[in-house]
Every structure is written in C-alpha cells, then in structure tokens.
Predict the 3D structure of the following.
Amino acid sequence: MKRPELTLLLVDDEADVLDSLARDLSSFEDHFVLETASDANEAKKVLETIKSKGQSLALIFCDHVMPGQSGVDFLIELAKDKELNRAKKVLFTGQAGQEDTIEALNRAHLDHYVAKPWDREKLLETTRNLLTDFVLENKINPIPYMAILDTERLATDVARRDLFNDSI
C-alpha cells in the first residue's frame, strides 16, 4: 500500500503529552502520515521533510507554551507560508491566555482550540471534522478517506462531483 500523502503534525514539548496525543490519534495512521515534534524548531525541520517528499500538511496540533518560539507565534508563521497555510491549525494547550488565543485566531487563522487535558472522543471528532474539511476544501479525492473521515460529507461531495461531471 502506498504511503499516504497527507500529514498530521503534533507539536508539544512535553514528551508524555506528545506520546498520549499520538496514541489517541493513532487510528488515523492508516490514512495519514503522523509526525511529532518537541518544539517549533523541530517542527520546522519536519515541515521541510514533508515538503521535500511532496506531502501536504493537512492538520497541525500545536502547544502554546514551548521553549524557544511559542505555539501561537509558530502558527502565525505557518499561516504566512504559501505551501503550508492551507493546513488546519489547532492550538493545543492548557496555558494560553485570552490575548494569545485571540491573536492565534486572528493572525494564525486558527481552526480550533483544544484545552488540556482533552477528552479523547472530542479530540477524535475534531480531528475527523478538520481532516474532512481539508480534503473537501482542497478537492482531494475523498474515496480513500471514506473509512476514517466523515463518510456522509465525503459521499455528498462525490455525488455532487459526479452530477457536475455528467452535466459537462
């Protein structure tokens, strides 16, 4: 089976949190590449690798309070990158203040906020919805993702595309 082209990137400086998050999202690994990084600098290296392999960043979960560059600043930087700004962005933290969160929403084009500690089922639902949005918004063939994403929304898109193609 060919390695998936869409990548999920998890960024958190706490190894236990990163491992737990990766474990909770492991059900997506059959359809998406799952990468982790312990800070913004490591995440930038992962992103360069993703680009060099021709993969697309579909979703990033990023902690706010990290050594070096904050998660909010990193997400703002990511939003300015023409190759990566389509990715869905989630601020994943228990320590961002209201100002930081508003800045992330406004300048990083944040798609969601997940507070620590998280509810596993809500995390999976959020991930499923954001990845479905990414596939649909980027006009990616949804059929390979039917088993893991929002099947109803993807099927509606497939049917709409078939109707549109039939009328041409």
User: Anything to note?
Assistant: Residues 64 and 71 are 4 Å apart (CA to CA).
